């Protein structure tokens, strides 16, 4: 699935405006970039049905050179080759693999291990990077205002015990033929789950990207 053109254009205009406001010194240029940011907010508000002021406030919080945001997720398997999944509270308790935004002052793999520990109660050792994917190219729903790069790792269980958190309402392992249908599609897709199983089964597979 492809994203609507209004979203792609609004996102790109916002990125140009954000980067321009970061480097522009001339007050007239800054005024023009601010106008571009407002235009991007209006386009995104019109397409999404979100109040324009809410979008403008979101865009105004962004600073620096515009780059994709970084999300980390981890496929963790038990001795029976079952995949660890959690119910995501913020998405009506739908299922996903543990993960979230990468944290400042942590490496990507450290962030991935931290998310597993916080969301499931298990500790893991991150063993390999399976996929580096642009969220917009993967058919995730709903679409996001900003560009996002998703890193999918594999992790080896090292300890802990199942425990829910403020983010998760259930923690459970699933065999490949037991994967639930009510997935948190903004976070994970069935195709990505299938690829995690494939990478777990065949360690010779190279990292997938794009």
UniProtKB/TrEMBL annotation:
InterPro entries: NUDIX_hydrolase-like_dom_sf (IPR015797), NUDIX_hydrolase_dom (IPR000086), UDP-X_N (IPR059176). Residues 67-196 form the Nudix hydrolase domain. GO terms for molecular function: catalytic activity. It comes from the Bacteria. This is ADP-ribose pyrophosphatase. It comes from Acetobacter okinawensis.
